Amino acid sequence: MSEQLQKAREALQRYFGYREFRPLQAEVIQCIYDGKDVLLLMPTGGGKSICYQLPALTLEGCCVVVSPLISLMKDQVEGLVANGVKAAFLNSSLSYEEQQAVENDLYNGKLDLLYTSPEKMCSQEFFTLLKAAKISLFAIDEAHCISSWGHDFRPEYRKLTFLKQSFPDVPVIAVTATADKLTRKDIARQLKLHRPEVFVASFDRPNIFLEARPGRKKFEQIRDFIRRRPGQPGIVYCLAKKSCESLAAKLQEAGISADSYHAGHDSLRRSSVQEDFIADRTQVICATIAFGMGIDKSNVRWVIHYNLPKNIESYYQEIGRCGRDGAAAHALLFHSFSDVMTLRNFITSEPSENSQVYQTKLDRMYEYATAAICRRKMLLNYFNEAVDKDCGHCDVCKNPPEYFDGTVTAQKALSAVARCKEQIGTGMLVDILRGSKGYHLVNAGYDKIKTWGAGREHNQEAWFQYINQLILQGLLEVAYEDHNKLRLTPAAREVLFNGKKVKLVKAEILKKRQEAKPEVKPKRERVRDDLFLHLRELRLEIARERGVPPYIIFSDASLEEMAATRPTTEADFAQISGVGEKKLEEFGRTFIKAIEEYLIEEKSKR
Ligand code: ADP
Ligand code: ZN
Predict the structure, then answer these.
(1) Could you tell me the distance, in angstroms and rounded to a whole number, from the CA of residue 299 to the centre of ligand 2?
(2) Given the CA of residue 76, which atom of ligand 1 is nearest to it?
(3) What is the DSSP letter of 523?
(4) Exposure winner among 295, 305, 374, 387, fewest CB in 10 A?
(5) Best residue among 50, 199, 551, 554 to mutate for probing ligand 1, ranked by most atoms within 8 Å of CB
(6) Left (φ > 0), alpha (ψ -120 to 50) or beta: where does 326 sit?
(7) Sign (positive/negative) of CA torsion 300, 301, 304, 309?
């Protein structure tokens, strides 16, 4: 390890309380020390920020970070200051005087890190100041915003082209969590990076348990899911504003602290919802996709997709918002045909040259949601990371599919569809097979057909599962343009008339899978016992006193480790991941005291 890198490592421990670099961090930092430009692709939560923060802390001068979102800047700077880092931000949310003060600090070399908006960065006055100050490094956060190939193009990012021309000797690091090959090239080209070193981290987020379920009785499922996770913050992503609101309202009725967030609320309301969530005052946010991009909350424990996302890229970015602190997290995805149809309508209602691409991406998303293959394997393969081992940490791995000869089951369903002249949808089909006497069913004369009541051996839930599988296996087709009626495919005729065999996954397995308790194998031992809850209370108190979000004090992962190792000396406390010098000094004694008191009380109970 080079001497410089050694220094970076000391800073990692001293300021952030972390002992080891994560994969790629050391390599990236070394490149910056060597004066090279860097393009870094890492999933959300991978630890990109440290890659420019450590050079910022160890090199002479200030590192200027360009970030697209004002709220993100504020959070990041708050976190840094809590760790004893000389950091500030500069954007239009500050008063004129405040801006002046920050600019003076920059000019006088009093800052190690300065976060700013692209607009500010490209203004003439700021340029003069940058020229006069000592700049160690430029970091471009969310660098995909510069490319129109990316999924979140921001024209103001384009102006950053001037950086490399005006400051040829200052290294630039561009970081992003999402960029395919095309976007990657475009970022380097737009920023005029000089022979950049490109790093692509693994996109795996092993602490996130992956799960997908058919979207039936979603409210009940979600309510139970949350009840099993008391006090754990989470996000439910919905496609429509209306479902955000109604879901939040129903959760509230069920006694869960929930709120909604979408573009229909004004910005004041939005920021107050967001702040309550960050401060752990609201447990659950039901949001449209706009939520989360601007928040840096590391203790989000779960993400639910109420609707199918439009592509795997968005899905992966959204689930990436949970478990950023490395502690156990859960991503639950609901899928249904009606979502596919709604999304298809979006695509066809605004035809563009990319329609075909969008369509294909949607198909891949649906395949992901419904397949019976290790989900992590599918995701990583999607991002061109070849893996052939099953992960052991998703619903499919936990309960691998058990097949049975479903030929007769399939024949019953297919024959009913044929006898109803392909005029029924899934719900009616299930009712017919189960021998229901619903008004519409009887009215249409479906109780007279031969297959009416022929499927009573399977319950309703199971039938929905099986029909879904028949669709996925290409035996049934959904006529999206005609009220989702089911149609027979040529393959179905093979099954009906030539006895072609059909393999189905047992419905009980799929059901069991939904109830499977995720297990996490954390790197270090962590527990969530009474002591953890106690420390969490203490953290909340301190956070309230100081008017900062709780995770700024300590992450959940740090608290879990405290609960597991129960340190009672400062030396032991300093060993906890996330405890740097500043936090040891500020909070060490308070937390140690709480742990000691807890231990005494525990003893007296025995
Ligand atoms: P990104 O910007 O890539 O989404 P962050 O830089 O915010 O991710 O890092 C995610 C979390 O991981 C943060 O809580 C951060 O403090 C933590 N982290 C980063 N590097 C390390 C490390 N070397 N050891 C332990 N935790 C780390
Ligand atoms: Zn798996």
Answers:
(1) 23
(2) 7
(3) S
(4) 387
(5) 50
(6) left
(7) positive
Element (H, E) at 330: strand 329-335
Going from the first residue of the chain to its last (606 residues), give the mean pLDDT of each consecutive group of 10, the final group possibly shorter: 94 96 95 97 88 98 93 87 97 93 97 96 93 97 83 82 94 87 86 94 91 92 93 94 96 96 86 87 89 75 96 89 91 92 89 80 89 88 80 92 93 97 95 95 94 94 88 82 87 92 85 55 60 92 90 91 92 94 96 95 84
**CATH class of the domain defined by 530-604:** mainly alpha
Query: 3-state secondary structure string, 109-168?
Result: CCCCEEEECHHHHCCHHHHHHHHHCCEEEEEECCHHHHCCCCCCCCHHHHHHHHHHHHCC
Could you give phi then psi for residue 594, rounded to 5 degrees? Answer: -60, -40
Maximum CA extent, the chain:
88
Q: How high is the pLDDT of residue 520?
A: 45
DSSP secondary structure, 412-468, as one string = HHHHHHHHTTT---HHHHHHHHTT---HHHHHTTGGGSTTTTTTTTS-HHHHHHHHH
> Which structure tokens are listed for 141?
């956060």
First to last CA, the chain: 50
94: helix, strand or coil: coil
For helices 426-433 and 460-472, the axis angle rounded to 10 degrees is 130
The partner residues of 485 in beta bridges, in order of sequence, read: 479
What spacing in Å lies between the alpha carbon of 404 and ligand 1's midpoint?
45
Helix 124-132 with 96-107: angle, nearest 10 deg: 30
Spatial distance between the Cα atoms of 406 and 391, rounded to a whole number of angstroms: 28
Domain 3-200 of CATH type 3.10.580.10: no
CA 82 to CA 405: how far, in whole Å?
Answer: 61
Tokens of 591: 């937390």
Nearest residue CA, atom 2 of ligand 1? 48
Amino acid at 56: A
Q: How high is the pLDDT of residue 521?
A: 42
50 touches 12 (CB < 8 A)? yes
Query: How far is residue 412's CA from residue 463's CA, in Å, rounded to a whole number?
Result: 11
* SS3 state of residue 338: helix
List phi, psi (to 5°) of 193: -60, 145
- Ligand 1 centroid to 196 CA: how many Å? 23
Which architecture does CATH list for 403-512?
Answer: Orthogonal Bundle (1.10)
Report CA(381)–ligand 2 centroid distance (Å).
12
Q: Tell me which residue of 574, 553, 548, 551 sits closest to 562, measured CA to CA.
A: 574
Residues lining ligand 1, Cβ inside 6 A: 16, 18, 20-22, 25, 42, 44-50, 298, 324-325, 555, 577
Does the domain at residues 208-398 carry the CATH identifier 1.10.10.10? no
Cα radius of gyration rounded to whole Å, the chain = 27
Q: What are phi and psi of 212, to 5 degrees?
A: -135, 140
Query: Would you tell me how many other CB atoms lie within 10 Å of the CB of residue 457?
Result: 11
Which residue out of 41, 204, 324 has the highest number of ligand 1 atoms within 8 Å of its CB and is therefore the one to mutate? 324
Contact (Cβ atoms closer than 8 angstroms) between residue 553 and residue 79? no
Q: Determine the number of helices (DSSP H) and then strands (DSSP E) in the chain.
A: 29, 17
Please report, as a single letter, which amino acid is at residue 583: K
Residue ranges per structural domain of the chain: 3-200, 208-398, 403-512, 530-604
